[in-house]
Amino acid sequence: MRELGQFTVSVTRRQFEEMRRAGMLDEPLSGIYYVEDPMLYDCKSGLKAGNEYLEQTFVI
């Protein structure tokens, strides 16, 4: 499990439940989830799913 730490992200319980209900997560082992779609994660900005602000463009 320790080796997986570099591949983990934190999400709120609400975000997790929304992602699970939307079918965005796979659970290969009990309690271990992953996002199968590579388009939902960006190396620079992180997890894109469920964050409405990342789907919008803001000019400040």
**Mean pLDDT, nearest integer?**
76
Total beta-strand segments: 4
Helical residue percent band: 10-25%
Query: Number of helical segments?
Result: 1
Give a short summary of the structure.
With 60 residues, the chain is of the alpha+beta class. The protein contains one helix and four strands. It has a two-stranded antiparallel ribbon with strand order 1-2. A two-stranded antiparallel sheet has the order 3-4.
Write the layout of secondary structure elements.
Elements: H1 13-21, E1 25-29, E2 32-35, E3 41-42, E4 46-47
Antiparallel strand pairs: 1-2, 3-4
Please describe what this structure looks like:
The protein has 60 residues and is α+β, with helices and mostly antiparallel strands. Helices cover 15% and strands 22% of the residues. The chain has one helix at residues 13-21, and strands spanning 25-29, 32-35, 41-42, 46-47. The strands form 2 sheets. The protein has a two-stranded antiparallel sheet. A two-stranded antiparallel sheet has the order 3-4. A hairpin with a 2-residue loop joins strand 1 (25-29) and strand 2 (32-35). It is globular and about 25 Å long. The N and C termini lie far apart (42 Å). The model has no long low-confidence stretch (mean pLDDT 76).
